[in-house]
Amino acid sequence: MHVIVCGGGVIGAAVAYFLARRAVAVTIVERTGVANAASGKSGGFLALDWCDGTPLQALARRSFALHAELAAALDDDWGYRRLDTYGGWARAGGPGGGTALGWVGDSVAIGRRLGGPQTTAQVHPARFTEAMLRAAQAHGARLVAGTVAGIDSGPASAQVQVDGAVHEADAVVVAMGPWSILAAQWLPLPAVYGLKGHSLVFETGAAVPAESLFLDVEEPSGASQSPEVFPRPDGTTYVCAISSESPLPVDPAAVAPDPGAIDRLAAMCATISPILAGAPVLARQACFRPVTRDGLPLIGRVAGRDRVFVATGHSVWGILNAPATGEAMAELIVDGAARTVDIAPFDPGRMAPFDPARLQAAPRVRRPLPSAG
């Protein structure tokens, strides 16, 4: 069996790994670079039970376990570790009420402990994605640079057009993040939109312990933001906030921060911690997370296309849910059904296909939960 995976982000890499581990010949097609978009610019936060009570519960719990198994089984390092996680609030120029965390400022108040080493963890998202791809390649997978320009399928095979050449396979997986909307030109796929987020990466060394923060911060303007702070074992600290519904560029390499967004985020960081206020900035960046109208991912077979599958729309939980998604997709393609997790809630057929002739501004979409990496 030969499967073409369209997309070199974390979902595509995980699908490729679990397929290749089952002796399936896999070709990954990537336009811009492995982990070039949200898979390399997200927080990498993992939570065991934050999706409990939603359709994502079983997927998230299975994936949290798989993250630990993969870290133990593969001879690679992507910064996996367990964390303490706290929630709180802050206001620029005002006392927050004190805190038990020594590295944050006096304006921060810690309201509660959201998780500990049993329930919250992290990875470096780019390194995790790259490691999954390397592990897939160790099992024979092949990475091809190119732009997907068409996908079709017939009774005997599926076809993918890449830079003018047609490649045949037994199955095709669309895993192009928010750019999966481009595949709606050729396939009956529901709409996938891009929700833009901004982030900073600081060089903090050993000054910030393994304590992640989810905060509500009031800006001087009175606007409320929800920054997320993730110290990493490599001596960096990642902070994200400020979402927008800016237009998604056709080329992932063209993604850039909104005007003023990074300065606003830097001011928030200075409010949160004097360590962040004085630390060198290693990256000022933005990315688009793929979202659907109902906030749930698309995982399954494309309606009317027996040989074409889709795995995208994971919103803020892409890094967390990549392993279980890859495992379930491999089972669906090879065995005909996913066994480890019920993916019925994520069936692409639950929503009407997007009509590319009726392009319009992306509607507001419902995030499944208010926070994630």
Average pLDDT rating: 93
| N- to C-terminal distance | 34 Å
Reported for the largest beta sheet, the result is: 8 strands, mixed
The portion of residues assigned to helices is 10-25%
Low-confidence stretches: 359-373
Strand content: 25-35%
Radius of gyration: 20 Å
Shape: globular
Total strands: 20
SSE string, helix = H, strand = E? EHEHEHEEEEHEEEEEEEEEEHHEEEH
Report the total helices: 7
Which class of secondary structure composition applies to the elements? Answer: alpha+beta
Describe the protein:
With 373 residues, this protein is an alpha+beta fold. It is 22% helix and 30% strand. Strands 5, 6, 13, 14, 15, 16, 17 and 18 form an eight-stranded mixed beta sheet that branches. β14 (211-218) and β15 form a beta hairpin.
Keywords, please?
single chain, 373 residues, alpha+beta, 8-stranded mixed beta sheet, 6-stranded mixed beta sheet, 7 helices, disordered C terminus
Q: What's a concise summary of this model?
A:
By secondary structure, the chain is an alpha+beta fold.
What's the arrangement of secondary structure elements?
Elements: E1 2-6, H1 10-20, E2 25-30, H2 38-41, E3 45-47, H3 57-73, E4 81-82, E5 84-91, E6 108-115, E7 120-122, H4 125-138, E8 142-145, E9 148-153, E10 158-162, E11 165-169, E12 171-174, E13 193-203, E14 211-218, E15 224-225, E16 228-231, E17 236-244, H5 261-272, H6 274-278, E18 281-291, E19 298-301, E20 308-312, H7 318-335
